[in-house]
Amino acid sequence: MFPSKPQLIPTCCAVTPSPSPLLPQDPDKNSLQLSPERTRDRRKVVRIAWEKLLRWSRSWRSRAKTDVLERTKKVVVLGGGSFGTAMAAHIANRKDQMEVSILVRDPAVCRKYFPDHKLPENVIATSDARTALLRADYCLHAVPVQFSTSFLKEIAEHVDPGLPFISLSKGLELNTLRMMSQIIPQALKNPRQPFIALSGPSFALELMNKLPTAMVVASKDRKLAGAVQQLLSCSHLRISTSRDVTGVEIAGALKNVLAIAAGIVEGMNLGNNSMAALVAQGCSEIRWLATKMGAKPATITGLSGTGDIMLTCFVNLSRNKTVGVRLGSGEKLEDILGSMNQVAEGVSTAGAVIALAQKYNVKMPVLTAVAQIMDSELTPKKAVLELMSLPQVIQSP
Ligand SMILES: NC(=O)c1ccc[n+]([C@@H]2O[C@H](COP(=O)([O-])OP(=O)(O)OC[C@H]3O[C@@H](n4cnc5c(N)ncnc54)[C@H](O)[C@@H]3O)[C@@H](O)[C@H]2O)c1
Ligand SMILES: O=P(O)(O)OC[C@H](O)CO
Questions:
Q1: Reduced to 3 DSSP states, what percent helix, strand and coil does the chain have, rounded to the nearest 5?
Q2: How many CB atoms lie within 10 A of CB 134?
Q3: Beta bridge pairs of residue 241
Q4: How far is the CA of 174 from the centre of ligand 2 (A)?
Q5: Is 255 designated active site?
């Protein structure tokens, strides 16, 4: 049936339906106007699908376990920067009787990150490692990657060998190319220290404001990942589990380098076409390297990969993107870093990425260009010219 009302097609491009194979054969398929009967049927199908989804969700919720939260009495957070503080507040809000200790160099420091937010009463900041770690059930590690080894070596004597470490840090150690799953057990001299990576698109401020967020916990130990999922998930934080620790960690580290590139494109006013092309190319480079390192492609295209890339590359709350924007608008790297009081992990991770790319024999033009800019070997303008002059790609069919 043709619609009875005229369609909203501009006259300059209006077409008369014809039997041409290039044009729609069934006008109803492409029309916004359906007969009342078909509208009713269509709505019924949608309603049934939605109700089915709700029933499935309710049945899962009714079986959801809460024993981990009930059992957990104390959580320690290492590093009282913005994310450590936000996660400490999140966990403390899960249960009033839980003690959440933040280990900081200066106990006054964690109040500075969110001056407009009152921290829950059960969050305690201390600079005493022994007290902070004593009888903790879980440990959240939120110290920037480059300082993690020295920090952990200093506190190692107070760490229980069975204490699960949930790493929030996203980056690669510059000289060793190690990820947090390697840094933590090696610094603590305990290869069996239980390890979980927590990653995904999550700005500390939005978590602090209890805005809906989704993240991934990755661990080789399925049971442990499930326990951490229980500990963290609530009505505004969805947590999925994964066994692909390499994929989750490498994507979380490399998206910070790509975000610097995205910032440069914005700072140079290169336009939306450039931005989309750059981020798409960056996603491919991350996938090429990550899969050679053993990551699953689905992890890279999922929440902690593409999800976090979208957040960090497209949103100006990102510290890494901000570094790029300022570089692209002509500021010097040392001036930018000197004026920041928070970490942009992509700056040091960029150097490590290139060594990894060489080790795994992967070409990464965009991420290599960022590393060259970080080393002041290349200007953003020259980088754009060089990237645009790379050989034209022949796509395989
Ligand atoms: N902020 C976010 O939105 C966010 C979200 C997800 C993941 N992360 C990751 O979390 C990690 C921490 O980031 P952040 O945002 O909390 O950083 P931040 O810059 O806000 O704070 C860093 C903290 O580390 C401490 N620190 C610095 N050097 C130290 C040292 N040598 N020894 C001990 N402590 C030291 C600082 O005092 C500060 O408390 C990073 O790897 C980051 O990529 C951050
Ligand atoms: O502010 P950034 O660039 O460190 O990004 C923060 C988080 O990693 C976003 O998921």
A1: 55, 10, 35
A2: 13
A3: 217
A4: 18
A5: yes
Say if 230 falls within a structural domain: yes
Q: Is the dihedral of CA 329, 331, 337, 339 positive or negative?
A: negative
Number of structural domains found in the chain: 2
Kindly state whether residues 151 and 276 are assigned to the same domain.
no
- Look up tokens 């009930």; give the residue: 70
Domain-embedded: residue 56: no
pLDDT value of residue 116: 86
Angle (deg, nearest 10), helices 365-374 and 380-388: 160
283-319 confidence digits (pLDDT tens)? 999 999 999 999 999 999 999 999 999 999 999 999 9
Question: Which residue in 29, 73, 223, 255 is the catalytic one?
Answer: 255
Query: Which residue numbers belong to the known binding site for NAD(+)?
Result: 79-84, 147, 204, 319
CA geometry: angle 152, 156, 157, nearest 5 deg: 155
pTM of structure? 0.91
- Identify which of 185, 189, 177, 186 has the alpha carbon closest to the alpha carbon of residue 146: 177
User: Which amino acids bring their CB within 6 angstroms of ligand 2?
Assistant: 170, 201-203, 256, 259, 308, 311-312, 318-320
> Residues lining ligand 1, CB < 6 A?
79-84, 104-105, 109, 142-145, 147, 151, 168-171, 202-204, 342-343, 345
Binding residues for substrate are 170, 319-320
Neighbours of 121 (CB within 10 A): 8
